[in-house]
Amino acid sequence: MGAIEIIKSDYIREIIAKGEREDGRKAMDYRNIAVKTDVIDHAEGSAQVDMGNTRVLAGAKIVVDDVHSDTPDQGNIVISAELLPLAAAEYETGPPSPEAIELARVVDRGIRAGNCVKLEDLFLEEGKAWTIYVDVYVLNYDGNLFDASTLAAMAAIANARLPTYKDGSADYNDRSKKLEINSIVASSTFAKIGNSIVIDPSGAEEAATDARLTVATDGKVVRAMQKGLSGSFTLNEVEELVNIALEKHKEFIKHIESAKR
Questions:
Q1: 241 to 158, 169, 221, 227, 261: CA distances (angstroms)
Q2: What distance in Å separates the CA atoms of residue 183 and residue 146, rounded to the nearest whole number?
Q3: Which of 20, 109, 126, 240 is the 20 to 30 A CA-CA neighbour of 39?
Q4: DSSP string of 23-91?
């Protein structure tokens, strides 16, 4: 971290300790969120999410695959993430970075554990099933990729339409059937900076963060959690943040519902 970044980080820590945030938000306020669906023509489902200045694009492609030997009556969901160089100066082309791998795993874990799509419903016939491939692309980074990416991936899946299956292959000219959604999962990410905790950290706030906690929920129960960085949360803090995540889920549902085609 350079001298300018250190000064900025110290400033963030000072104002957070005073109960203030650089952009004027309260501790448990999200930035403005905008969700657009059907933004990629050739995808079965797609969504763009703007969370403040963070922008994420997700596309869902549904293909016919061979079933796995250990789940012969189920399809599959595969989520990947790419941090595009245009999103931030530190992102580079090449193999997936540890940050991209972690992002994909966190998004995948919440959606998969939430049974958003029943994998049994993706079964086609003996040996064949649908696989939903969701690709997440970070177009601009300004903090909190976990929540923006989960929302984009979930909106893309909720917006998806199935190709027609005929004679062992998919007919992409007929995508009239909507993919059946079992539940909607969203995540809330909290940053602990000093002794204070804020939701939806901006890029500058993430640089000053001591500990991070992402809680994925379907609005009823916690489906997955991911703790990051070297700091810690108390048990009471975790319990309080879980309750906040459950409450925030209602807001995410509204964004997805209003963006459905």
A1: 26, 46, 13, 12, 32
A2: 19
A3: 109
A4: TS--TTPPPPEEEEE---TTSSEEEEEEETTEEEEEEEEEEEEEPBTTBTT--EEEEEEEE-GGG-TT-
**76-83 and 128-140 as β-strands: parallel, antiparallel, unpaired?**
parallel
**CB atoms closer than 10 angstroms to residue 127:** 10
CB 86 within 8 A of CB 139: yes
Asked if pLDDT for residue 62 goes beyond 80, the answer is yes
- Exposed/middle/buried for 7, CB within 10 Å: 0-12, 13-18, 19+? exposed
Residue 62's closest CA among 85, 45, 84, 48?
45
Assign domain 32-259 to a CATH class: alpha beta
pTM for this prediction: 0.94
Q: Is residue 85 pLDDT above 90, yes or no?
A: no
Chain segment 124-156, per-residue pLDDT in tens: 999 999 999 999 999 999 999 999 999 999 999
Domain ranges of the chain: 32-259
Q: Does pLDDT of 194 surpass 70?
A: yes
- The alpha carbon of 89 is separated from its chain's Cα centroid by a whole number of angstroms, namely 22
- Report pLDDT for 63: 97
